[in-house]
# Entry
Amino acid sequence: MKVHFYKYQATGNDFVVIDNRESKLSFTREQIERICHRKFGVGADGLMLIETHPSLNFNLEYFNSDGSQSLCGNGSRAAVHFASRLGLVNGHSSFQAYDGPHVADLLPSGIIRLKMNDVSGIKTIGNDYFLNTGSPHYIRFVENIHEYPVVEEGRKIRYSDAFKPGGTNVNFVQRLSDDTIFVRTYERGVEDETLSCGTGVTAAALAASLKGYSSPVNIKVLGGELSVDFKSSQSGTFSDIYLIGPAKMVFEGDLEL
# Structure
């Protein structure tokens, strides 16, 4: 079977994107793993299928590189860019993702503002935090982030008894200035560090607000720069959360499965 695909990256988080509006394609876990494999396939952190939706602009099916499913913030931004390329959206868009409906705006500059769902119930674990921004995220503030053993420490937390059976993503955060943080993420489903994680930087920004940061929070990641805008309430609920950053098509091609 020959499949036409598009390769996207969003601050270094990379994806294989396929137009499946005719609903002709479905993939097994093994096929997804092979497509995303960086030696035997295209190579990506995840696979995305753009499909039709009865009332929204499109439906987004997102798969991590191990075949599991979750919300992907950077992937969703890339999907909006791709949907615009297909002519499904023009500026403002609405779509269904893993955690429910979302809206987004593709600005003339190429920046995508993705509205995330509201977040409540940030849990404190010692000096660390745990919250769900569409995917579960553990947040730890550290120093010397470029020397920090992200994979080793991230894997310990991801597979710890506290988060079984599903596990969690793990983010390590360094405060750079009054409005900027640096985030490195160990992603479950990829089982490695990625250059960027959209739901992760969103979680890190919200956790940073508990340490005195105000909206918007600027975020540096290994793959570039993002920002997160939000409103917070005294009850601990965050609303009007926007993940803001670029996405770009890298190339397209045909894949033999």
Notes: The helical segments are 29-36, 73-85, 150-158, 198-209.
